Amino acid sequence: MNLYDLIFYLFALLTIVSGFFVVSSKNIVHSAFNLIFTFFGVTGLYVLLGADFLAIVQIMVYIGGILVLLLFGVMLTHKATNVEIKSGSIKVIPAVIGVGIFAAVLISIMLSSHWKDIPGSIPSTTIYGLGKLLVTDYVLIFELLAILLLVAMIGAASIARREKE
Amino acid sequence: MEHISLQHFLVVSSILFSLGIYAVVTRKNAILVLMGIELILNAANINFVAFSRYGNFGLSGEITALFVIILAAAEAAIALAIVLNIYKTFSNVNVDEINKLKE
Lengths: 165, 103
Description:
The complex is a heterodimer.
Chain A (H helix, E strand, L loop, with lengths): L2 H22 L3 H21 L3 H25 L15 H21 L14 H9 L3 H22 L5
Chain B lengths: L5 H21 L3 H25 L5 H31 L13
Helix pairs in contact in B: 1-2, 2-3
């Protein structure tokens, strides 16, 4: 076992264990803070796969943006005086059985399939290639996503605005 | 022990996907359901990047993962706005109790 394998198992364990706490924790704030470690573990996996730019974007957008947004959502949808923010689960046993079967089937498919497994050489940086692809092959999707983000921003602002009575 | 291959990453993403499904199915609070959706999107992203690295397709998989991150950000903003509106109307955000669109 070399260093690469060791770091992979470390980040995989971090991702899965903190992901388990996200879905099982009674306290919503604990779930949100465990989500940080899940995102961080996924970032580590991206780095191991040679996707440096994507790892930075993951940290900035997920941890810096989405997670803060979710925490704001938690704080705004509960009484501020209520320190213990709890939330229960429903129908746990059928869900565990169903999700367990689903996970077993999924993992067995992943392990038994013959994937095309030819690792290319890791480029020293992916930013040049990604930038070039964004303005050549994927320029239409790039522009559409820009419009989508504008629409989402205006839509979110107008939905969340307090209406004047 | 064998060297890390594509299948190791696929197994991690399968487990993360299943955890996300579990959160969406069982949790009462709408924000926890959203966290489950984020876990699912992250699992899909791991698959995209892993196939991009091991399938020798160039950077197409990483571009797709980038687009998924953008969509996740837009989805989280809209969903949080809807959840805040639901909280204003019903004073809670438990998805098993809310069965009307307006009061």
